[in-house]
Write a structure and sequence with these properties.
The chain contains 6 helices and 3 strands. It has 91 residues and is mostly helical. Strand 2 and strand 3 form a beta hairpin. The chain has a 3-stranded antiparallel β-sheet. The chain is 65% helix and 11% strand. The radius of gyration is 12 Å and the shape is globular.
Length: 91
């Protein structure tokens, strides 16, 4: 999982925004629209990053469709120390 975290959050072009999304979700669960507003990103951009994070088991959702709320997965929580290390390097 640690290698996946490093790749998804630092080895790709959108890594910085994915770090921002994870940080925001760590503060409190949110839906994609709330994330877009809070992070000042386009809704479609946020959806893309959430899809990448979901595909890599880094976030999970509660609910369906537009109102689905996202939060960090248990797997990411287990490796949160690595996430924090990555966040420090990306800032």
């Amino acid at each position: 999982m640690e290698a996946v975290l490093w790749y998804v959050l630092t080895g790709t072009r959108g890594g910085k925004n994915r770090v921002r999304v994870l940080r925001a979700l760590d503060e409190r669960p949110r839906n994609a629209n709330q994330l877009a507003g809070d992070l000042d990103l386009d809704y479609k951009t946020v959806r893309h990053h959430l899809d990448v994070l979901m595909e890599n088991d880094m976030v999970r959702n509660s609910g369906d469709g537009y109102g689905a709320v996202y939060l960090p997965s248990d797997q990411v929580r287990h490796h949160w120390e690595t996430v924090e290390t990555i966040m420090e390097q990306v800032e």
